[in-house]
Amino acid sequence: MTAALIVRRAGPAMTVQDLGRKGQLVYGLAAGGAADRVALAEGAALLGQSLGLAAIEMAGMGGEFEATQDIRIALTGAPMKADLDGATVVWNASYLMAAGQHLTLGAASSGNYGYLHVGGGIDTKPFLASRAAHLTAGIGKLIQSGDHLPVGTDPLLDQTGNVLIPQDRFSGGTVTVLPSVHTAHFPEDVRARFEATAFERTPRGNRQGAELAFEGAPFSTGEQLTILSECMTVGDIQMTGDGQPFVLLPECQTVGGYPRIGTVTPGDLAKVAQATPGTPLRFEFVTHEQALAAHRPLETLRADMARSVQPLIRDPHRMHDLLSYQLISGAITGWDHIED
Amino acid sequence: MTDQAKQSKTFPRLQNVGLDGLLITFAERLSDGANRAALAFRGRVEAADIEGITETTTSLASTFVLFDPLKSDLDHIRAQLLALLDGTDWADVPLPQGRRLWRVPAAFGGTRGPQLDEAAKLAGIDRDRAIEEMTSTRVRVLTIGFAPGQPYLGTLPPHWNIPRQSGLTKQVPTGAIAVAIRQLVLFTASTPTGWRMIGQTAFRGFRPDQDAPFTLGVGDEILFAPISEQELTEIENTDQTGLGGATSEVIT
After folding, report:
1. pLDDT confidence of A321, banded at 50, 70, 90?
2. pTM of the predicted model over 0.90
3. Where does the pLDDT of residue B91 fall: very low under 50, low under 70, confident under 90, or very high at 90 and above?
4. Class of domain A173-294
5. Name one Pfam family in it (chain B) (predicted).
6. Distance (Å, rounded) from C-alpha A44 to C-alpha A303?
7. Is there a contact between B59 and A188 if contact means CB atoms under 8 Å apart?
8. Residues from chain B contacting residue A183 (CB–CB below 8 Å)
9. Would you call B189 and A138 a contact, using CB atoms and an 8 Å cutoff?
């Protein structure tokens, strides 16, 4: 019998996510997938498995889980208070979760999206080659209390107890931007002001997009534009009718009529997705060459992370220190055998 | 600031979008010709099978190309696309092969098209003439968007260049046909809209329970076949496929 993860108590916005489904833009469906792709790479690195496996994405709040058989788990993304049968566990680490043990995940202490990965991945039925829920498109559904989520075969069941220093993306900061569809329609002084402006995340936002607040005049194209609906891409920064900026996230529409001043580079998108209300953000235009030089594809990230995974300290007298990410310095587990 | 700070006013226009996108725009406004060009150019790009291109799509008047920036560099892709653009009169280009013509049963007016009279009046014709036009004009899938599989159809004759209503209709049902700006939308999901609902079908553009969940492709054509409200109800009660009684054939 294959293992399953029983959801004893589901948080309000938990879904199965992976890298999404490509190739469907022409049918009006964006790729979707995890809001924070870096978290997927971290989970894959911690469990020594493929980047393409599905995990549980938890917006704002975790839940309570139990496994029907021994499984491996890893926790990444927005850190949440976590315990396994009452014992506090460190975020951004992997564990053996024995059959019958209870994993309890609380509210996110920073960031929006936390991830629960399982060895072998969540093995729900794929649709168009992806298990990702895309709720606005009517694909998949919210995870509910009582759900039994099938877990894929895990060949590495004995490899647990690892930790990874998380890539910082929970405190905002500067986000690099490339030109998008309508960048040239914004006058140069408006683009300069856009770069000089301090933005912050507002509470409005979801997997489709994140709203930003700022002080000052709206960013407008200056001309009376009747913009024809045009193709959108994840990361686009669109100025809605009243000049309110939204950064588009993985579940965005595929075409839209609002002007877009730029598009966030793929590597910086997680900073926007994970920014909680009030988190400061600034935008800086870069050239294609600069963006390309800084670009690290997820597979490269995963491979690099897999090399820096380290064993958790197992001395029981120091278990309480684990929250401070104490590591055995210099230890390398050396397992990085991804085959696909 | 950016290479594209000054945008070319000439068409077709090629511009970078983010790290991995290129947009080829054929006109500032929608016209039948611009849409044909966008569809035809996408067909041309797909057929050319350029290494590094990962996905192509179209909007009303543009072709959008995504590529893997690490497999193939931007300048190379740009050069390939420019070579494909060169030497064709994009204002008058044949549409790609393999498109389908769909005959879709539709009930216009009454409870199934509560705003038909209002829309016809804005178009300066009476309701019978409106129904006659809606069921004799082959409309093309100009683009698919806003919801998965949801087609924007056109272009209708010039007198159908009617504005969207100022308020929103709270909810139109799945399968609704709504009109504005010389286009029709055939809704794939129940949604609020500013377009006027003039008819309804039992046709589903998105059928997630099917292996091929998207019924229409861009460039396909639709001819609505007039049926009564009762006939539509019957189809709704018996249809298991989501095609709503529609049939299709390849356009040759």
Report:
1. very low
2. yes
3. confident
4. mainly beta
5. CT_C_D
6. 9
7. no
8. 2, 4-5
9. yes
